[in-house]
Amino acid sequence: MPTVKIKGMSCNHCVLAVTKALSGIEGIRNVNVDLARGEATFEETRPVDRAVIADRIRKAGYEIA
Ligand SMILES: [Cu+2]
Fold first, then answer.
1. Angle (deg, nearest 10), helices 50-59 and 12-23
2. Tens-of-pLDDT digits for all 65 residues of the chain?
3. Taking the model in full, what pTM does it have?
């Protein structure tokens, strides 16, 4: 399963925001964000450009590590 490292998450609100941001990308589903590990895993129904993922994460207020 694809995994991205995310910087800046500190609480469950952050987890929710990142989950929402990733879930809103076409081609991504079943997002699971792990706060302790600082990472998100998800399924791709089609290949998604990592730049698109980084952009959505940034717009939500976080950074791809
Ligand atoms: Cu937070």
1. 140
2. 899 999 999 999 999 999 999 999 999 999 999 999 999 999 999 999 999 999 999 999 999 99
3. 0.95
